[in-house]
Amino acid sequence: MSGAPAKKRVLQTTVAAAAAGVVVFAPLAPAPSLAQAGAPVEIRIGANAGFTRIEFAGVVGARARVRQDGRTVVVRIGTTAAPDVSRLRVDPPKGLEKIETRAAQGATELVLTLAEGAGATSGSADGAVWLNLYAPGKDGDGLRRSPVPIGGAVPVAAEAKGQQTIMRFDWSGPVGAAVFRRGEAVWAVFDHAARMQMKGEGLNGARWAAGPDFTAVRIPVEPGQAVAARAEGSTWVVTIGGTAPAPSGVDIERDDAVKASLTARMAGATRTVWLTDPMIGDRFAAVTALAPGKGLKVGRRTVDAGFLPTAHGLAVETPTDDLSVTADGDLVTVTRPRGLTLSSPTAGLEQATEGADAPRAASRPALIPADWSADAGEGGFIARHRALQDAAERESGRAAEDPRAPIESRLAYARFLVGHGLGFEAVGVLNALIKQTPAMQGVAEVRGLRGAARASIGRFNEAEADFSSGALAGDPSTKVWQGYVAAQQGDWANARRLFAAGAGVVDGFAPEWRARFGAAHAMAAVETGDADAALELLAYVFSQPNVSAPDQLTARLVQARLFELDEKPERALAVYKAVARAPLDGIATPARLGVIKLEMAKGALKADAAAAQLEALKWRWRGDATELAVIRTLGELYLSQGRYREALTTLKTAGSKIVTLPGGDRLQADLDNAFRALFLEGAADGLQPVQALALFFDFRELTPVGADGDEMVRRLARRLIDVDLLDQAAELLKYQAENRLDGVAKAQVSTNLAAVYLMNRQPEEALKALWSSRTTLLPAAMNLERRALEARALMELGRYEHALEVLGKDASPAARDVRADILWKQQQWGAAAALYDQRLGDRWKETAVPLSEVEETRLIRAGAGYSLARDAGALTRLSKNYAGFAEGARSPGAIRVALAGLDGGDSGRPQDFAALSAGADAYAGWIAQTKAEFRAKTGAN
After folding, report:
1. The model scores a pTM over 0.85
2. Could you give the C-alpha distances from 624 to 459, 612, 876, in angstroms and in order?
3. Each residue of 193-207: pLDDT tens digit?
4. Quick one: CA torsion of 319, 324, 328, 333, rounded to 10 degrees?
5. Angle at CA of residue 418, ends 414 and 421, nearest 5°
6. Which of 55, 270, 566, 569 could disulfide-pair with 128, CB 3.0 to 4.6 Å?
7. What is the 3-state secondary structure of 408-440?
8. Whether residue 352 has pLDDT greater than 60
């Protein structure tokens, strides 16, 4: 079954599949700059916390072959020119002990010796062959290495034993599987893509195909043959024929929490794979799971879905085209966009006759009619409450023993509680009902009553969960409640839309709720700029009978906002002040906020006094759109006063509940904009560098990911570098690289970090920064910069040969500077002098411009090097070109001594050259040059 023609035929004629799941590993695309180079063999190296990837790209490199024998991995490349592996030799990644090259017939082989306990996987993607190296012990750190064997093929051995055929799928690591019988075939589905190398008896007609992240095998079988599956380590064993053990471990239950669904509990579920049966042509889903074996003993069918018996995993058939099968942890959820078509949850319950005094069900599931709060009969409220409560308790006691017990008495009691505004008690009764009979979550009235009760006590998120249930889909009374919840959360546009959708049933609610809904709708109209609609709605509110004082005050708040909209601040202020005296914090707090804003606008309240009042107001009422408005107003006030720390603290300390409200994104936007203004637009430039650093670190989680975040860090780091606070600059860059970035962005910041470490004489830390941020996706210019920094760090550690090996044939200016310094330290005077001379170039022609500090160092070392190498001709030429620059130089004496040479009289004595060599500190010149480059990158003057 292996081979390209066979595989193509199988893919065309058997399994056409599409997987719904998480991609385990996305291949790394080749860097554009490297691809343009056109080299026949390109070796790219990238690393993360889990493994190191080595890619072989290029015309020849992409055809490399990988094989493994124990700890030895051999990469065969079809060229006799050995590729450059100096980077792997100088700094071998974790898991690699050593690397060697050896010649083979018409090829070169790279021999990688793995460390004890290390691992390797390989494959090909995006025009390159890749090799992943895993450090010893990494398997236990939550990293799932590829279970596909080296070479990409899984051996499949089949053996016939009597009436049984036993198939062994030898993966290299744990894989999820689903094994089941469908029609006249057994299916084995795995959650990784691989080739199947099939051999042995009993495989006649077996076909396989691989999708993006799965492999499916179809084996024709005789009718009546049993199938079993088990795991032996990483090998899956499928047995066809004989007697199969009864599977277990998969349980299917009904779930009406959001919409009608079926939930299968299956430990270790990994992926849903959609397949097309080549013989029937229909689609079905297979859900894979890790070992040990678990399956569904007896199938189950509904109108929308059918569950097949399985030896392992789960298999779902469907006649629809919108069935969703989702694997999440140990749960597999099967549903449709509007829920499955299932029988009513109350279908199996006994029916009971409601008492004459019990509140009757409303015409709509979320409606609260006026008669629910009527207390007719002798004894009034207390007597009626006791009667309904006793009936509900008796019914609940019976339900504890009989799952078919009726629910009418408990629902009647819940209606009574909701009608009298006892929301907490109603929620408790309905929660107990659902706990006793979970299927009640699918009953529309149960969800509508509980949602109304939750909304009435301010539990808006919980109420929204009830109102979003599939049982209430399309119900207009539910839309009214959703509009009310949206208005309480400040989602004004959505509130108006929902109120409009339920407008036809509002008059069916009790008067107090008509008034509350009208006031909320009016406020939404005001906030969306529809003053006419707000006036009509307020008139509707005031027309309701017996409107309570709190509801009247809420309507007056809307009236004040209308005055503001109509540019009548004095009338608005008078209303706000009147409402602010109310002893109800939920109403008085927004009124007090309106007073503060209007008095600040007219100049009657100073900013400091306003800030103090807003600080007190911030703690007076919490958890809704009012708190959000107070926090935003206070944050803007602090920013306008230049009190940056107070502003950021105020905006940041908003509770998590506030941020998730509609409009909460504006609070986060305020916070982000304030942080950007400080560290990207220069608002913090007036602070001392240490103060700016402290402010940044206290709020560093606000640093945006990407170019803006990098620019912020660079700007602040540049200020710290300017005043030689190198430790603080390094800490700043290190946090950014390790906690906020990945890929190219991390490599860029790590490059800057390495430069800072080198300026601070910490070459070991510089190497760590560079090596921990390697990736194959780097621009050519960044690669040159990083190579020069790595070589300089190695040079500072005295590893001169390694440094030169890293530089290789790099002829960039930075590389030539490092190479010259290395040769100087090795006392190769002539070669070093020639490089310093080359870096000066034609600088001697610009006589009107004094030499920079770096140029003076190059000139001094070039002259001293030529002298020590006894190269009189080169020294004479250098002296002729640059003698005039001594006048006005920083070190005129050193320049004259260097250009005079050893034979230049009293100024050219050997002891002078000793002092001269020590004084011409190329490192100090490099630091000055690096600081200047850093300032240029950040746009500093």
Report:
1. no
2. 11, 21, 83
3. 898 998 877 677 899
4. -60
5. 140
6. 55
7. HHHHHHHHHHHHCCCHHHHHHHHHHHHHHCHHH
8. no
